[in-house]
What does this fold into?
Amino acid sequence: MAALAPVIDAVAAEVLADVPYGVEVDAVGDLGARFAVQAQSCWLGWPADLEPTLLAWMDDNREAARLGDPVRMREVAESFDAIITRLISARRGPQPPEDVTTELVRLNAPSAATLSGACLVSILRNWTGGDLGSLALCVGAIVHWLATHPAHQEDLRRAVDPELDAAIDEILRIDDPFVSNRRMTTRETEVGGCPVRAHQQVVLHWTEANRDPEIFGNPNVFSPETNAANNLVYGTGPHACPGRPLATLELRLFTRALLQRGRVELSTLSTPVRELPPLGGYSSVPMVLHAKTSPQGDAS
It folds into this structure.
């Protein structure tokens, strides 16, 4: 993470440098998606010219998820597998690039045999496929909250890393883009008066859990310190998200770069659009960036 931080910081700065002051941009499509793809490509060592392909795949993946069409979802998944397969093949040839993906390809399993192609595709799919869309949705949720809570922008602009991380986690608890996960029960039990059989698939609804008034009181109240222990944005237990440190780093650096660039407001020309189930957050957050003002009222 320490070695990756300046690289991701540069990605955030580059994405935001293209945003003109006073002009409407979409925090999800124009900023979040580009940042997600470029940040991922940097840490995995994927070529920059793959960005248009990955952005198009993200659009296809979201559309397939909204439709819930298993045939279309399979086609989209297979198209992503094909992208990964090409990247793996390039790293099995002569003089492969020295990056995380090559390191994974060379990694030996406990049996001392290299990981199979199918296994490598599965690992990289889990590392990347879902995280691209999730990170973009997180950016949309964060930008929307900042724009609708302008009094917090200056405080978060000055916040140190742990404070900013806690604030971002709390923003995502209030409006959680990670809607749900499936789990398999290990034994017969009962949850909230509902009987659950052994080896039955159940769905954990993170968004609802993170807004449970019995745990959080008024779930809309922003209270990072109070709510941190019960925040389920990244799951809990043995299946908690292993990518949390990376996601935390990426969102911190993006948010800080955004606030350093200027003040965030929602556009008056367009309206934020909610993402459709099974996704969460916003599919579009039209925003406008304004130059910061100094205490004397001068633009800076």
Summary: The CA atoms of residues 108 and 114 lie 5 Å apart. The domain at 5-176+244-290 is CATH 1.10.630.10 (Cytochrome p450). The chain has a mean pLDDT of 91. The chain has one domain: 5-176+244-290.
